[in-house]
Amino acid sequence: MIAALVFTVTSTIALATVPANLRGLVHTRVELAVHKVADQSHVSRLPAKLETPSHVHLLQVVSENGKVLAASPDPHGASPVMTLQADERERIHIAERRLPPVRGENGGEYLVMARPVHTPQGRATVYGVASLAEVNRALAWLHVLVFLGGPLMLVMVGATTRAVVGLALRPVERIRAELAEITGQDFGRRVRVPDTGDEIADLAATTNQTLDRLERSAESQRRFVADASHELRSPLSALHAQLEVANAYPDETDWRATGAQALAAADRLTGIIDELMMLARLDAGAVVQRRVVDMCRVAQEQVRRREGSRARIVIKPCTPAPVYGSPIQLDRMLTNLLDNATRHAATRIDLSVEVAGDKVIVTVADDGDGIPPQDRERIFERFTRLDDARTKDKEGSGLGLSLSREIATAHGGTLTVAGHRPGTQFVAVLPLYEGEP
Known about the structure:
- It contains eight helices and twelve strands.
- With 437 residues, the chain is of the alpha+beta class.
- The chain has a five-stranded antiparallel sheet with strand order 2-1-5-4-3.
- The longest helix has 50 residues, at 199-248.
- It starts with a helix and ends in a 6-residue tail after the last strand.
């Protein structure tokens, strides 16, 4: 398409300018020769044979009565006779006419120029004649090239381009075919990376990196579904067993205790489902309603709600620490951190909210057994509970810390485990709210 457009524009320009330029060149040559003879005739007697420049086929000086006063030499020795007469003697006359053979030419179209002059022999006319045969041949070749060679060239360019592009895109087609064969159950396959070091190799490498991420994501998803099924099955199985026994022996059942146990199992199910739903919303990037939240006030409210809990919570005095975010999610993050600390603390939990520069730092520390350094990142994986935690804590789902980190990340912050003795210290860093969102 582009080649055709360029060729059309170029051909149009050539057809519009080349003929005028070629005829202009012939015109200039004849005009110079005629002016030279005319100027010479004013000052001296002209020789019988005029010197004729190349590309000018005939020069003649003809008197008013038709007598040839001077002319170009005839290669055959005959006296040249110019029979053309200017239509007007008062000015230069230029015309293109078909003439009989001139000085050995085969005849045809000629450019004729006539200029009236005054000579010592009286009034006369200087004629210059040049053949347009070369111009016409050049224009004929130009038309052949434009109207015959042009389409042929476009066909060749199109065929060559298609072949070259097809050859260049063959590795891309191979990558596409290999990707089409990879299914959701076969993420282990990879496309072959050519050793060309070009953009195709980069494409193949990027494709493999994308497949790596998809494989990790799919594996994580499968593991997540399996773990979620396991975690949901446990309280459901316990609830089912309790109700089945109570139904089998209704007279021997303590319905108050059975109801309390069933309620506890339902509460655990509700907590797991709530955490799963919030994780799903975070994964999907769901838009939540946000406003300015004072993390100092959130921490103080958490302490008030937990009065009388197993481990005493000591909160460090704090000043307003505004964060722009979801009040529900930020409260849930701190709830999960304090729940985790409560399960593992020996006697005390330290809570602090501080403003440092453009950050709000929330710290939750307990005096429990602590977390080995090699497990400090693993605990943020979904449904991950360390062996000690599984032994001591039968109620945890392994989702709380993962959800807390997701919430911190969704608010532009971080959640990490810091070194602390004794026990464990979690540090959440969130952006400080400093103006309109």
